[in-house]
Fold these 2 entries.
Entry 1:
Amino acid sequence: MRQWAIQAKAFISDADDCVRGLLVCEISWEKDPATGKHHFVEIPGSERELPCDLALIAIGYRGVEHSPLWSQLGLAIDEKGTVENTNFITSSDRVFAAGDARRGQSLVVWAIAEGREVARVVAGRGVGE
Ligand SMILES: Cc1cc2nc3c(=O)[nH]c(=O)nc-3n(C[C@H](O)[C@H](O)[C@H](O)COP(=O)(O)OP(=O)(O)OC[C@H]3O[C@@H](n4cnc5c(N)ncnc54)[C@H](O)[C@@H]3O)c2cc1C
């Protein structure tokens, strides 16, 4: 059985600490009138337990790992979880981003191309001189 538009909120365990179910709720895809952006909204009162004895988590890519270095450098993070930037230049002066950290999950060819491109931007700004 497939179920759509539900969100898992918690695992429910039995007395032996084995999974016995999932606490889920229904969600709807709503437009925020203030921002015009869509996002999932929980439908109040829709929580229920789905019985299960095995849970396989297949939630796909959740964004790049956030290194403590990012906050130490004062980097702003965008809503995709990647380093906010304009033409490779981050929100922190003299810090640049390229590759997966900048564009999200991608390919090696893009990482190489962006590495070259960011080097040109760094050189063009006279950083390190
Ligand atoms: C499972 C998997 C399979 C993939 N398969 C393919 C494929 O078949 N073909 C393809 O084209 N792409 C594939 N990709 C994507 C590809 O690997 C990435 O797009 C690419 O590696 C991104 O390069 P990058 O330089 O941006 O980041 P990364 O390769 O992630 O390099 C970032 C580096 O920074 C280092 N680092 C992080 N924090 C610090 C720190 N504080 N100090 C010092 N170093 C630090 C990390 O250790 C890492 O070495 C795959 C990715 C995954 C996860």
Entry 2:
Amino acid sequence: MSRIYNPNKCKINRNYTISEISLLYGVHKNTPKGWLKKGLKRIDNQRPYLILGRDLRLFLKDLRTINKRPCELGEIYCMKCRAPRKPVPGSIIFETESSRYGRIKGSCNVCHSAMNRYFRIADLALLQRHFKVILPLQQKR
Ligand SMILES: [Zn+2]
């Protein structure tokens, strides 16, 4: 799960498509698509999505940090602070993504940026206790 991707493999002055990233890193297209969900920035919403090499490099460096510094149970990794942060109390929403996975959304208690983190539905009760969430799990529309 925590494979290391060399951030310096991509060139900061180029744009990459999802296909180009998967070729460059020798991974399935779902891997860079998952990176977008984790916070990798894309230039805009036009398809095919284009990612700035500079953003990709920064994201892959962050990914190493995330893998090295796993969040505590009550924390979410903030892409802006580039550190695990506690969300603002009351900002937290638990949402289903599928029958097995969900997403916790909240705002960073330091920079107030939106943060999110995937979790297994099996861990829901445990995480809700650590995040002190009273709201029930919401169905994604
Ligand atoms: Zn933050």
